[in-house]
Input
Amino acid sequence: MVVTRAISKPEPAEGAGPSEMLNRAEASGTGPVDKEAADRIARSSLYFDVPANKQPILYTSNYDITFFGLEKMHPFDSTKWRRCHAFLLEGGQVRRDEVVEPQEATQEDLLVAHTPEYLASLRTSVTVAQITELAFVALLPNWLVQRRLMRPFRYQTGGTVLAGKLAKERGWAINIGGGFHHCCGYQGGGFCAYADITLAVKFAMEKQKVERVMIVDLDAHQGNGHES
Ligand SMILES: [Zn+2]
Output
């Protein structure tokens, strides 16, 4: 989960997640946006205008991962996004029609943060199995891995990017998915296949002229993706 907050509107923390980004604080080390990346960001549809009647809370059922029950072999709870969304609905914190559904990050979007070689490596199920620590994934055809695993990750990545836009507009935003803090531009790991935090920072710098970002990581261990 990624909680994104614009520091210009300080409020008490609500629904804290493992990562929190502030748009004007310490630099993240993600580096400047080069011309090629800027062009890709300009062509991207990850940023879109969200109607005022929606809350800055991002989720779609496309986030959820199911592998015919095989996912239960991993200690990671792959239904946590759906359950978190359901929890918010049941608690009355948000109505179903107030939740923002983000776009899936495309290959072009992902190239803003990733090398082409890394993205190509995800076409090999063995590589995805290593990143996700799901051994059985190595045995599956890659089209199935793409559909059941990588596509949800790409939707969650789109959610983190759009949360950056919404946080600047509304003062805060929460992406129920994402927060892949072990993935960098050329390498994934620890169930993190896409560098969604780096992407969100680069989009915010380019589209919203944000200069400094602070990443507050509340996971059990230190993230090592966006730093490299
Ligand atoms: Zn972690």
